[in-house]
Amino acid sequence: MSLKNPASLHPATIAAQAGGLLDTGTGGVVPPIHPATTFVRDEDYVPTVDGNVYSRSHAPNGRMVEQVLAQLEGAAASMVFPSGMAAVAAVFRTLPAGASVLVQSQIYWGTTAWIRTFCTRRDITLVEVEAADAAAFTAACDAHTPALAWIETPSNPWLRIVDIAACADAVHSVGGKLIADMTTATPVLTRGLAFGADIVMHSATKGLNGHSDVLAGALCCADAGSEMWQAIRLDRDTAGAVLGPFEAWLLLRGMRTLPLRVERMSSNAMRLAEYLNDHPAVETVLYPGLPAHGGHDLATRQMTGGFGPLLSFVVKGGAPAALGAVARLQLFHRATSLGGVESLVEHRHTIEPHTGIPEGLLRLSVGIESAADLMDDLGQALGQ
Ligand code: PLP
Fold first, then answer.
1. 352-372 per-position pLDDT tens digit
2. Is the Cβ atom of 212 under 6 angstroms away from ligand 1?
3. Do residue 222 and residue 278 come from a single domain?
């Protein structure tokens, strides 16, 4: 079952009703978990239900999440993976040896690190560029004719905002594809395909699931018949990077409250950004919702309903001051990741000291708690 004409519905409706999915066997309003790994054929040796044969390629719970995510993204199709990095790898594995790729600099460090190693092994020319500078991105496309370009907006942890439409035009004009990691924005704030991306990627571990209890990744495409999408599908089916039924079921359950959570996380993050911006112990706040942020105007055009849960700020006094504040926080958990209902804080310089992250930078993933409580906690940690 699915909703009639989902394109006419708002994300809150699609998500809350799980795209119209029900348990058709019992009439339950929650779709069931299907743990079977193999499926029966009839006397004529034809698969009996929906073409299901074997769960590496035919996974009912994975398909349910994919259906709802595609509706939320306005995508032709979507595919889920056992982690965000598995989704990143699935895209890059389609590249032939010797290709060129353009990757935004200073994005999620795990993505950069993996791509660098992969490109070296595959003899792929990797060009890293500050994609928030649309002119630099366009010049790099013209100079290197990449087969694909990879952007992340807002970027983690620098909160740079990239003009998806400008990047799509630039890479399409040299025959390449644009892939956008939209983990932080989620489809609630930005639908990357509508701005011209060919594929949108998510670490579904983050906001999509939202409860810090499922590791998953997703890709959503504008053209399900494209050579790249078909290659990714074949690779997933045959190489086996599939999401298990229990994780897929939990992810769909988490997604039912996605718009509500994103709305609350964004309004909380905005209030904290304004509070920190006026705080005497804080040097800089990186949050696209602040009018002084370099990407604010673009973010206002490209993001609808808020600016997301991720915000970074630099504490005066470098690493000792930042780590001192982190130690005093009572509500923010000292933990990596983002997009969950609970607020997290991370000193990225401790994790990735050689990437140019300011020593005093703290990254917050703002949850759905009371903004007043979160503000009080930051206040006592920073010293009012
Ligand atoms: N992309 C971004 C922006 C991320 O923040 C992360 C994880 O932190 C990933 C990709 C990788 O996702 P996963 O941890 O689910 O493999």
1. 888 889 999 999 999 999 999
2. no
3. no
Number of domains in the chain: 2
Residue 183 Cβ < 6 Å to ligand 1? yes
Can you give the residue range of the structural domain that contains 165?
9-255
Average pLDDT over the chain, rounded to whole? 97
Amino acid at 301: R
> Residue type for 178, please?
L
Cα–Cα dist 1/307, whole Å: 33
Residue 224: inside a domain, yes or no? yes
Q: Under 8 Å CB-to-CB from 37, ≥6 apart: which residues?
A: 54, 55
Within the chain, which residues score under 70 in pLDDT? 1, 384
Based on the fold, state whether residues 286 and 377 are members of the same structural domain: yes
Instruction: Say if ligand 1 is within 6 A of residue 247 CB.
Output: no
Which atom of ligand 1 lies closest to the CA of 107? 3
